[in-house]
Each structure stands twice: as structure tokens, then as C-alpha cells.
Write a structure and sequence with these properties.
The complex is a heterodimer of chains A (about 425) and B (about 120).
Chain A lengths: L5 E7 L3 H12 L5 E4 L28 H14 L3 E3 L2 E6 L4 E6 L3 E12 L3 E3 L2 H4 L9 E3 H11 L6 E5 L3 H12 L3 E7 L8 H8 L6 E3 L1 E7 L6 E6 L12 E4 L2 E4 L3 E3 L2 H5 L24 E3 L10 H28 E6 L3 E5 L2 E3 L8 E7 L7 E6 L4 E7 L8 E5 L4 H5 L4 E7 L4
Parallel strand pairs in A: 1-2, 1-6, 2-3, 6-17, 8-15, 9-10, 9-15, 10-11, 18-25
Antiparallel strand pairs in A: 4-5, 5-6, 7-16, 12-13, 13-14, 18-20, 19-21, 21-24, 22-23, 22-25
Chain B lengths: L1 E6 L8 E7 L2 E6 L4 H12 L2 E2 L2 E7 L5 E6 L3 E2 L3 H9 L2 E3 L7 E3 L9 E3 L8
Chain lengths: ~425, ~120
């Protein structure tokens, strides 16, 4: 496999949003589609979501996350999409240039006619919910624990308290129970469940794990390792209610306290973010404020169901392909203006052949050296002469102008570039 | 007549079901918005069923674990027993998604299958 200098569509991230985007971009007529993934394999976070419940809408089946991802991976692989694994996107510009660092290919620069941002989201951490106490070992984000238990084969602890009733937290409560751990409690600061009620039933109720609404962690106890947490009830404004404190012994605290769209790269490209969602402002094509940069899935806003992420990805991928194709057609209409004999430069540097239908186009240039006798000014195509006129002399200090007329459009159509020569008639 | 309350888990909607029982028999199901809810409510009142997902050890794969799941639902009270069987399995990569890992697990008539491809490392 070799990596090209330019792609029609580059997709950043190979989770459900990215895979669907790449597939639709390819199906939508983009010739070269590149997917850049920082992990060693395709699929994103779905690979650690081993529980079922995915794909009820898309496939009308109840699938685990890896299987849902597998179907998109299999389809993507049959379409001739290029995948760059174990590769970080270090920077993206508003001109749609990407700077990559790849394990196999080293440093790479790639130009994209269109980009789909599909970096997903990341978890809110302890620092963002401000829990006082020491900083002992044993405080994990629920998603990190999920990766450990389901992919890497480590148990983060034996006795758990989970803060937050998000889906990942509840699903981990069941998963840890399956693996022999004890989940003491799930605490939720709000007065309602933040995840799906089906997860409350299957993950907590089924396993007699108690959920306390309007409760939070007041303090983490333990210096080297978590020894307990102090829970407390809160009022409607999340103020602690004195006298409701309870010490819950545990060795691990899992945080399931929300997700934030991951947009560091978007910002570098000049993409403007909505302070409410944390993701880019997008139009109905999922295009951001930067032309040709699209965004899809959890990078835009955090979804509840993967099926909707796939749908959003597909929409963004289709739009990105349309943009790239239009861009390619527009670029193909442009021909360069090449300074020939005794011409130092020409402005404009390139021109749209179709623009001649709208009216005259003036070519302005300066000569390299003076010629103090009758000269020909000639604009040539690849194999044809477009226009030729004479001057009594040319001097570098005096700008030369040649006008292209709409009647020359037919000759212009035949060429891939224009060359301007300025030479003495005596040499002709 | 006895009434049982459930939250349907057949899909993410989470309909609140009321199942009216006459002894061991379901006489009426209320609150469901689709056929799946009807099936779920009946099942939940008589013999609750669940799908189970876990992992098995795998050698020579890019990860040490392979995610697996029950192709269909099994009796809820048998989950721990099924998990024990799953925990005892050790495989060697390569494995393909949907390959059968345990056929007819503990006589439930349901297969435990692989949730993904696990290519061999070497």
C-alpha cells in the first residue's frame, strides 16, 4: 500500500461515524477515500462495547458493539477505501491539508478535497467534576475501565462505587458483576436517570445494584488506594444536605459523568464550536463553517444510539463526496498561464476556461529584458496559437497587457495550459 | 387479579408495561407500543429472558480477549451458569465473527458466538 499526496475525501476516525462516512463517500462517487485511525484496528469505541443492544434500527437485529462495527468494517473493506491505522493526525488546516504521524509511514502530508471529522468524544474526568480528597489509585473513568475489562483483560478493582447513571456506568456495573466484582452503589446527582431505562432494568435492577438519585461523592477516602468514598444527598441545586453523609467502603470509584466531543483538531482547522454541544456548528449537510470540512457523529454532539451516529456519518460522507467532486471539476476547468520567452510573470496565474464565456480576460505581465524593436506578443496553447499581436517595443518598466476575447473560447478548450512568448519580429 | 410492572428492554424506548395476571396466566398487557413489548411483557411475567455478552481468552490474537454473546436470549436465572461456561473457554486466533464458541450452551438451545473477527498476529 502506498499513500497518495491527495485524496478526494479524508475521514478522521474509524468509529461508527467515520466508517459510515467513508462508505457513503465512496459510494457517492469519491474515487480516493482515506480513513485515518489512531488505534491499531478499525471500529473505535464500539470494540469495547461488548454488550448487545446495537443495530436494532440499522440491521433490525440486537447486536453487540463489535459485531455492529464488524459489518461496517467488512463493507468498507470491499469498497477499496484506504485505511491508515496506528496514525495520528497532528494538524489540519482550513486549506484541508493534514499532517500525519504514522507507525508504518512516518511523517506524511496529505491534501484532501473534503474532510470528514469523526473523532468522536471523550469522557469527562474527575478534574471536571471537582471531587475533593486525595488522588489515590482506584479512580477510573467508566470507559477506561470498560477497555481494561473487555479488551485488555484487567480488572480495575474488586469493590466498586459508580458515580453517574450514564449508560456506560450502568453497563459497567453489570459487566463488573459478571466478572466477580461487587458494585456497592450507583450515585446520581440529578433527580433522574441519565442513561436509558432499559439499562437500569438489565444492568442494575437485575443484579440488585442500588441506585441513589440526588446523591454524589463528597470525598474520596484513601491515600495510596481508594479505601472508601463519602456519599452525600444533594438538594435541587446540588447543594450537600448536612447529616446525610455515608461512608461506603470500596477500592475503586468509576466515573460515568458525561462525554465531551473531541474537537482539538477541529479548532486547529478554524472550525467554530457551539458552546452548548462542544461540537462544530454544522449545516444540514454536516458542513462546518470551513468549506469542505464536514463533521459527523459524537464529534458534533453526543448521541444516545449508534444507529443515529451511522446515519449522521453517512450524510456527512455523501456531502463530502459531492463537495470533492465539484472541487475536482472546478480544478479541472482551470489552466495555468506559463511565462514563456522573455516573460517574467503573468497575472492571473491560472484561469477558468468557462470564465471567457462571461467576457474579456486581461493578462498582465512584465518582460524579463527590454526589446527596442517591433515584437510579437503571442499566447499559445499546447498545439495552437490563441492570439498574436504586435508592439513597437517592450520594456520591463512598462506592464504589457494581452486581452483574451470570448471568441477565442473554442481554441482555449483545446489546451491544457497557456504560454505567453514575447520576441522580436526579426526572430520570427 | 395481580398486576406486574415492567420497563420493556426490547428497544431503547423503554415502554412502561403493566401485565395483568390471573395466577400463572397473563390476561392483559398494557403500555407497549409494539409487538416486541407484548412478547417481552409476557416473557418477563412468566420466565424472564436475557441475552448475555462476555469475553473468552484467546491466544495469538491482537488482544488477549475475544468478545462473545449468546445468539438469542436465555433464561435470566441461568446467566451465571452460562458465564461460568464462557469463562472456561480458551481459543486460538484466528476467529471469525459469528463463529460458534459454545454450541447449545447448558442445553438452552442457544449458541454462544464470536462478536468480531480476531485475526492471528503471526
Amino acid at each position: 500500500m502506498s499513500i497518495k499526496k491527495q485524496y478526494d475525501v479524508v475521514v478522521i476516525g474509524s468509529g461508527p461515524g467515520g466508517l459510515a462516512a467513508a462508505i457513503e463517500a465512496k459510494k457517492g462517487g469519491a474515487d480516493d477515500v482515506l480513513v485515518v485511525e489512531r488505534d491499531v484496528e478499525l471500529g473505535g469505541i464500539l470494540l469495547q462495547c461488548i454488550h448487545n443492544g446495537f443495530g436494532l434500527q440499522t440491521f433490525k437485529e440486537d447486536l453487540p458493539g463489535p459485531e455492529y462495527a464488524q459489518r461496517y468494517i467488512n463493507e468498507a473493506k470491499t469498497l477499496g477505501i484506504t485505511f491508515l491505522l496506528d496514525t495520528m493526525v497532528m494538524d489540519v488546516t482550513s486549506q484541508r491539508k493534514l499532517y500525519l504521524s504514522s507507525r508504518d509511514f512516518g511523517y506524511l502530508e496529505v491534501d484532501a478535497r473534503a474532510i470528514v471529522l469523526a473523532m468522536g468524544c471523550r469522557e469527562r474526568t474527575r478534574a471536571q467534576v471537582r471531587i475533593p480528597g486525595y488522588r489515590p489509585n482506584g479512580v477510573f473513568n467508566a470507559g477506561t475501565a470498560q477497555r481494561w475489562v473487555n479488551v485488555e483483560g484487567f480488572m480495575p478493582g474488586k469493590r466498586f462505587v459508580i458515580l453517574g447513571s450514564g449508560d456506560i456506568g450502568m453497563i459497567m456495573a453489570r459487566r463488573l458483576t459478571f466478572e466477580g466484582a461487587h458494585v456497592e452503589r450507583v450515585l446520581e446527582v440529578q433527580s433522574y436517570l441519565s442513561g436509558l431505562s432499559r439499562n437500569y432494568v438489565q444492568c442494575l435492577e437485575d443484579w440488585d445494584i442500588s441506585l441513589q438519585l440526588q446523591h454524589t461523592v463528597k470525598k474520596i477516602i484513601g491515600k495510596d488506594r481508594v479505601e472508601a468514598i463519602e456519599s452525600v444527598a444533594v438538594d435541587d441545586k446540588w447543594n450537600f444536605i448536612p447529616g446525610t453523609e455515608e461512608i461506603i467502603p470500596c477500592d475503586t470509584l468509576l466515573l460515568s459523568v458525561g462525554l465531551i466531543p473531541e474537537n482539538e483538531l477541529s479548532k486547529k482547522a478554524g472550525v467554530i464550536l457551539d458552546p452548548v454541544t462542544g461540537g462544530p456548528f454544522v449545516d444540514e449537510h454536516f458542513q462546518t463553517n470551513v468549506p469542505g470540512i464536514f463533521a459527523a457523529g459524537n464529534v458534533v454532539h453526543v448521541y444516545d444510539l449508534v444507529d443515529y451516529v451511522s446515519m449522521a456519518g453517512a450524510g456527512a460522507g455523501k456531502s463530502a463526496a459531492e463537495f470533492a467532486i465539484a472541487e475536482k471539476e472546478r480544478a479541472a476547468r482551470y489552466i495555468p498561464l506559463v511565462p514563456g520567452k522573455n516573460v517574467r510573470y503573468i497575472v492571473p496565474h491560472k484561469l477558468d476556461k468557462k470564465a471567457l464565456e462571461q467576457g474579456d480576460i486581461s493578462l498582465q505581465m512584465r518582460v524579463t529584458r527590454p526589446i527596442e524593436e517591433d515584437v510579437w506578443l503571442e499566447v499559445r496553447g499546447d498545439e495552437n496559437s490563441i492570439v498574436k499581436r504586435s508592439e513597437r517595443y517592450v520594456r520591463p518598466g512598462e506592464m504589457v497587457t494581452i486581452v483574451l476575447k470570448p471568441r477565442m473560447a473554442a481554441e482555449l478548450e483545446k489546451t491544457g495550459k497557456l504560454t505567453v512568448d514575447i520576441y522580436p519580429k526579426s526572430e520570427a | 387479579m395481580e398486576e406486574k410492572n415492567f420497563i420493556c428492554t426490547a428497544c431503547p424506548t423503554g415502554c412502561k408495561l403493566i401485565v395483568r395476571m390471573e395466577g400463572e396466566e397473563v390476561v392483559k398487557i398494557l403500555g407497549q407500543r409494539c409487538r416486541k413489548g407484548e412478547t417481552y411483557g409476557r416473557q418477563e411475567a412468566i420466565a424472564p429472558q436475557r441475552m448475555v455478552a462476555s469475553t473468552v481468552k484467546i491466544a495469538n490474537g491482537i488482544h488477549p480477549l475475544l468478545p462473545v454473546y449468546t445468539k438469542g436470549s436465555i433464561p435470566k436465572r441461568k446467566i451465571m451458569e452460562v458465564l461460568e461456561k464462557i469463562r472456561a473457554v480458551e481459543l486460538t486466533a484466528p476467529v471469525k465473527a459469528e463463529d460458534v464458541v459454545i454450541a447449545n450452551v447448558i442445553g438452552t438451545g442457544v449458541d454462544v458466538i464470536a462478536s468480531r473477527d480476531m485475526p492471528a498476529v503471526k
